Amino acid sequence: MNFVQLLKRRKKYLWYCLIAVLLSFLFFDAFRSFFTFALTIRGQECFPYKLWLIRKGIIPERGQYAAFKNRKVDGKLTWVKVVSGLKGDWIRVERVTEEDRRKAPELFKLYVDETGKELSVQAFVFLHSGNPQDGSEVFEAFEKDTRGKNLAIIEEGKIPKGKYFVSSPAVRSYDSRYWGLIDESDIIGKAYPIF
User: Fold this and answer.
1) What is the SS3 assignment for 190?
2) CA dihedral sign, ordered 68, 74, 75, 77
3) How far apart are CA 49 and CA 42, in angstroms?
4) 13 pLDDT tier (thresholds 50, 70, 90)
5) What is the rounded CA–CA span in Å between residue 137 and residue 140?
6) What CA–CA distances, in Å, run from 54 to 22, 138, 158?
7) What is the CATH classification number for the domain harbouring 69?
8) Top-ranked range on mean pLDDT: pick from 5-14, 84-93, 104-113
9) Contacts for 42 with CB less than 8 Å, ≥ 6 apart
10) Which range of residues forms the domain containing residue 67?
């Protein structure tokens, strides 16, 4: 039996294979239009998750995970943080003074176990919700990162429409308390932890 005869005999199966490949391609193309993935970079963990599924085009609500591009830092990597502040919330910054340090130096130093370094607090960032029932959150803002680089601090003020304060529960998280608010246009979508 030659190759042409084999093709004729297997014509039905070849059509099934071709249709299966085409349907698979269409499925993955549609999936890619609505979803993407992100991986946590080793050493940059702010959450206990390594892989994220991102639903594109969905703006997360307070307390949900947001995936976004951070133009203020690198503009290329996909970042994942929790949406902590929304339009109408207030940001207040209380800087630590030298007098504060003299009176209670132990209150303004924090030992970070995973790095083995002690970091000095430069200020406390208070995020007051527009809804009094939500209360407010307090974030420590350090003077330097774990490499010794000076850190900026967010400006005080009311969060405008289309801007978000994002954070993570990790003590040394590099987030909005340092580089400020993110724009809604930079949000890729809502992130879901996989593992």
Assistant:
1) strand
2) negative
3) 11
4) confident
5) 10
6) 25, 28, 28
7) 2.10.109.10
8) 84-93
9) none
10) 9-193
Please give the structure tokens belonging to residue 48: 């206990």
pTM: 0.85
Nearest to 191 by CA among 70, 47, 38, 33: 38
Q: Name the amino acid, one letter, at 18.
A: L
Number of separate domains in the chain: 1
Q: Does residue 2 belong to any structural domain of this protein?
A: no
3-class secondary structure for 66-130?
Answer: EEEECCCCCCCCEEEEEEEECCCCEEEEEECCHHHHHHCHHHHEEEECCCCEEEEEEEEEEEECC
Identity of the residue numbered 139: F
Using H for helix, E for strand and C for coil, what is the string for 13-51? HHHHHHHHHHHHHHHHHHHHHHEEEEECCCCCCCCCCCE
Give the residue-averaged pLDDT of 178-189: 97
- Whether residue 27 is contained in a domain is answered as yes
Q: Would you give the DSSP letter of residue 144?
A: B
Domain assignment present for residue 4? The answer is: no
CB 76 within 8 A of CB 115: no
- Given pLDDT bands bounded at 50, 70 and 90, which one contains residue 114? low
pLDDT at position 117: 79
Whether 1 maps to a domain, the answer reads no
